[in-house]
Amino acid sequence: MTIASRHHQPIAEIETAPLASAFEACRAVVRAEDPDRYAAILFAPAPSRPPLFALHAFNCEIARVRDMVSEAIPGEIRHQWWREALSCAAGEAARSHPVAAALLDTMRRFRLPPEPFLNLIEARSFDLYDDPMPTWLDLEGYCGETSSALIRLASIILAGGEEPGSAALCGQAGVTYAITGLLRAFPIHARRQQCYVPHEVLIACGVTHEEIFEGKDSERLRAALAAMRERARGHLLTLRAGIREIHPAIAPAFYPVTLCEPLLRQMERPDYDPFESYIGLSPLGRLWHIARGAWLSRRAG
């Protein structure tokens, strides 16, 4: 069966009422905690939306662990619960958790291996601590195991469980999206003594972590953040150059990246304050950029 034919195959024909409720809970989680990806999923074919919501609700569950705990050990315990839920034959605890139940069903339907999910949890362990991000290589590895993996898994779902191709472009898209997101969250991270700007970049620009944690704006800091934006745009250019390689059926997996350019431009305005400025799009603006990206991807296809 081809990607095109699998793409239109209904996936919710045999859902039980509790499972349908679990998928609805996932939709609510993504809508509340990840409005950018939520909007992008609305442009995917209707049968694909529940499993995509399950995928991204899982990501929300892992991403918000740092905000739910006061120290690392409880966060590690929560991560371990998810490792066991994904690695073991769905136990009672996992089945009673709506996001876990929906995700396990999605993994079964689309033959998604547990390794990418386990790797995402492992990468997110970095969030639980206040260690510096050492190098560009470390940052892009973190982005690859988190954001790029989600795009790759979404592509497999949209392809009906078949090999969708475009793995390298999933990597480029994920790094673009993740770096943009980390830049948006820079003031939040700074307030809790975290910094995702690679230490090697800070050294090259003459910025210390102490200055960042004290909220000290400077041209040196702005140069470091500009280097992050430039890195994101480099990956975005590579993605755009290969857009014709993306099968139209899996294009919705890439729609969140359509928001990166307008967000990066907001950080280049003269009145941008790295510690205070809100970086984001209105609900209408978000939908407009995604719709425009969807139209352009269909043209390219």
How is this structure best summarized?
This protein is mainly α.
Describe the protein:
The chain is an all-alpha fold and 301 residues long. The longest helix is centred in the middle third of the chain and has 23 residues, at 136-158. It has 17 helices and no strands. The two termini are 20 Å apart. The protein is 66% helix and 0% strand. α9 packs antiparallel against α10 (136-158) and α10 (136-158) packs across α11.
Total helix count? 17
Gyration radius over CA: 19 Å
Amino-to-carboxy terminus distance: 20 Å
Q: Overall pLDDT, averaged?
A: 92
> What is the percent of helical residues?
55-70%
Q: How many beta-strand segments?
A: 0
Note poorly predicted spans.
5-14
Order of helices and strands: HHHHHHHHHHHHHHHHH
Which helices and strands occur, and which strands form pairs?
Elements: H1 3-7, H2 17-33, H3 35-41, H4 49-63, H5 65-68, H6 72-87, H7 92-96, H8 98-110, H9 115-124, H10 136-158, H11 167-184, H12 186-191, H13 199-205, H14 209-213, H15 219-241, H16 260-266, H17 283-300
Helix pairs in contact: 2-3, 2-4, 2-8, 3-17, 4-8, 4-10, 6-9, 9-10, 10-11, 11-15, 13-15
Main attributes of the structure:
301 residues; mainly alpha; 66% helix; 0% strand; globular
